[in-house]
Specification:
351 residues, binds adenosine-5'-triphosphate, OB fold (Dihydrolipoamide Acetyltransferase, E2P), Rossmann fold, 5-stranded antiparallel sheet, 6-stranded mixed sheet
Length: 351
């Protein structure tokens, strides 16, 4: 098994610098998820680890060895792509054993690896089928199996579930997590799906414009977002972002949510943005604020209440079945200790 150490990585396509002086340490055995919006450079970063694109600067070490300029086949990695690209004329067994056969691995060893991977991925009864005789989920399992039989130290996944329907996605997501628990290999996984990131990751790397915004456990990035971008990217419904100004005393806030912060957190006159997660808002009769309900979205086991607070939209997650309707005026309160406070100018979190 091995970790990956990336130092000062830069990748350019023409004049477009897609990865900018990036440092990243993937720990041995962790499930690291690269998360970010379309075009932020996640796949480019993953492909550079795989050796599928040349880097413009910096270094990539895998398992302690400098692999910056090594061929993909020399890097000790297995890769699973979004489109599974199986060989249509080969059986599942032949598809899975293709890589080791080409590499000249002895037959008995190939059989051992294929049977082990098939067992883990519930593919044993399907080994003699052709890809056309499989469902989308089964095909993606074969693609994962094909990577597993390489018995690589590091597995790289590029949005492997995004072609599947929602139910299959959730099912395969759990299988991948179990697989990681069983194998304990280093895994690097690209997605723009925050649910996949939150549920699978040991640590999440949030990226924007080729730059890492934050690295942390799922609860770190959700509860302590480093900046406004990370705060807004994670969470559904999204975090409420409410502007406010710090009063002359340095603790009281002026705006639609007047409240007091712990001393020393902000400066008099500073413009800030408050981040309030919808699940941290409490509806209670003696709440300090009032807002009018605009829309109610029932979600089965909870409801999302959309309110207007001054000019500002504001969402609240309610876990009980109380009846709420558009036009109701609700009183609510917020626990200040659960607030995130950002500087409005730099957009960075204020500790
Ligand atoms: N081979 C290439 N030649 C030129 N530009 C490229 C190439 N590959 C990627 N890019 C550009 O690099 C940027 C990052 O692309 P990348 O595919 O890494 O983003 P991503 O975060 O994985 O997005 P997505 O989720 O849409 O796949 C994009 O602006 C893209 O257009």
């Amino acid at each position: 098994m091995s970790g990956v150490n990336i130092q000062g990585l830069s990748i350019r396509f023409g004049h477009n610098e897609v990865i900018k002086n990036l440092d990243l340490q993937v720990h041995e055995g962790e499930f690291l998820v690269l998360l970010g919006p379309s075009g932020c450079g996640k796949s480019t970063l993953l492909h550079s680890i795989a050796g599928l694109i040349d880097v413009s600067g910096g270094s990539i070490h895998i398992g302690g060895q400098d692999m910056t300029d090594a061929e993909p086949s020399e890097r000790g990695i297995g890769m699973v792509f979004q489109s599974y690209a199986l060989y249509p004329t080969m059986t599942v067994e032949r598809n899975m054993s293709f890589g080791p056969r080409v590499a000249g691995v002895p037959k008995a060893e190939i059989a051992r690896r294929v049977n082990r991977a098939a067992e883990m991925l519930q593919l044993t009864p399907l080994l003699n089928r052709k890809p056309a005789q499989l469902s989308g989920g089964q095909r993606q399992r074969v693609a994962i199996g094909r990577a597993l039989v390489r018995e690589a130290g590091v597995f790289l996944f590029d949005e492997p579930l995004s072609n599947l329907d929602a139910k299959l996605r959730a099912e395969l997501r759990r299988e991948l997590k179990l697989l990681h628990q069983t194998l304990g290999n280093t895994m690097v996984y690209v997605t723009h799906d925050q649910v996949e990131a939150m549920t699978l990751a040991s640590r999440i790397v949030v990226m924007k414009g080729g730059v890492i915004q934050q690295i942390g456990t799922p609860s770190d990035v959700y509860e302590q977002p480093a900046n406004l971008f990370v705060a807004g990217f994670l969470g559904s419904p999204a975090i409420n972002l409410v502007p406010a100004k710090v009063g002359a005393d340095g603790v009281s806030l002026e705006g639609v949510l007047p409240l007091r912060l712990a001393a020393g957190r902000v400066k008099p006159g500073q413009h800030v943005v408050l981040g309030v997660r919808p699940e941290h808002v409490r509806l209670q009769a003696d709440g300090r604020w009032r807002a009018t309900v605009q829309l109610v979205e029932p979600m089965g086991n909870h409801q999302v209440i959309w309110m207007t607070l001054g000019e500002q939209g504001f969402s609240v997650l309610v876990h009980d079945g109380r009846r709420i309707a558009a036009g109701d005026v609700l009183a609510f309160d917020i626990d200040e200790s659960l607030l995130s406070v950002f500087d409005a100018a730099s957009e960075q979190r204020l500790s």
